Amino acid sequence: MLIAGDSSLLHLLQLASPALPVGAYSYSEGLETLVDREVINNKETLEDWIEDELKYGSIRIETAIMLRSYHSVCQNDLEALDKWNAWLSAARDTEELRQQSWQMGRSLLKLFVELQPQYSVFASAIDAPCNYAVAFGVAAACWQIEERVAAIGYLQSWTANIISAGVRLIPLGQTAGQQILINLHDLIVRVTQEILLLEDEEMSSCSWGLALASMAHQTQYTRLFRS
Known about the structure:
67% of the residues lie in helices and 0% in strands. By secondary structure, it is mainly alpha-helical. Helix 9 (147-169) packs across helix 11. The longest helix has 23 residues, at 147-169. The termini are far apart.
């Protein structure tokens, strides 16, 4: 028998699972370019890159929009939900990153509505391709996952996916990848707290390195990943 909190925990584990069929494994978010150019070539440089992204990069804004989407669902504010989705689409730096966000968002929203058709009203409210962060926020709110825990899950899932790409690209051993993830646990929690306190006018990031890597990826000669 489920006890209080079990259901939301299980939903979070499902939502943040690498087995979730949204295609996250096929994206490196510019990492492939950086490995190709030997900017990232070992465990230390991979960990440094991810750490900087968590501290200063666009993943902070994605998570902030995820939380705003979460609140929009909790308040049944469909107009705000659509607004934040459009805001995030406009904020993407490159076509590849935008297409990644839309493809993953479309896949997650479609899956969620098939699993929980009673929440289809929120999917219908989004009058454009749905970003992944927005779809994640919708699911987290409907499944009553506490907002701080949802943000930690979102950041941990993103971090694990980038590490997985690095393990395959550099390449690294699986143990090295897991060590990076453990090393970043405290930072993920600290960044979550910062994002929870962000006001709308404070939503900005320093992601020009990611943007340049992503733009270069579009013309890279050989590619294993889609971004």
